[in-house]
Amino acid sequence: MQKYVCDICGYMYDPKLGDPDNEINPGTAFEDLPDDWICPLCGVDKDDFSLED
Ligand SMILES: [Zn+2]
């Protein structure tokens, strides 16, 4: 599974860690995040994330 980075603030979504503060379990691929998931740091939506190189 790929890591994704927020274009705005640099937060990295790591599928191995998930986003437990927002009820996203470890092992959840970025593609499988709910459409209303937002960056936990700056609040932008998934469209503003890019694949980590
Ligand atoms: Zn962000």
UniProtKB/TrEMBL annotation:
<dbReference type="InterPro" id="IPR024922">
    <property type="entry name" value="Rubredoxin"/>
</dbReference>
<protein>
    <recommendedName>
        <fullName>Rubredoxin</fullName>
    </recommendedName>
</protein>
<dbReference type="Pfam" id="PF00301">
    <property type="entry name" value="Rubredoxin"/>
</dbReference>
<keyword id="KW-0813">Transport</keyword>
<dbReference type="InterPro" id="IPR024935">
    <property type="entry name" value="Rubredoxin_dom"/>
</dbReference>
<keyword id="KW-0479">Metal-binding</keyword>
<dbReference type="InterPro" id="IPR024934">
    <property type="entry name" value="Rubredoxin-like_dom"/>
</dbReference>
<dbReference type="InterPro" id="IPR050526">
    <property type="entry name" value="Rubredoxin_ET"/>
</dbReference>
<dbReference type="InterPro" id="IPR018527">
    <property type="entry name" value="Rubredoxin_Fe_BS"/>
</dbReference>
<keyword id="KW-0408">Iron</keyword>
<keyword id="KW-0249">Electron transport</keyword>
<feature type="domain" description="Rubredoxin-like">
    <location>
        <begin position="1"/>
        <end position="52"/>
    </location>
</feature>
<comment type="similarity">
    <text>Belongs to the rubredoxin family.</text>
</comment>
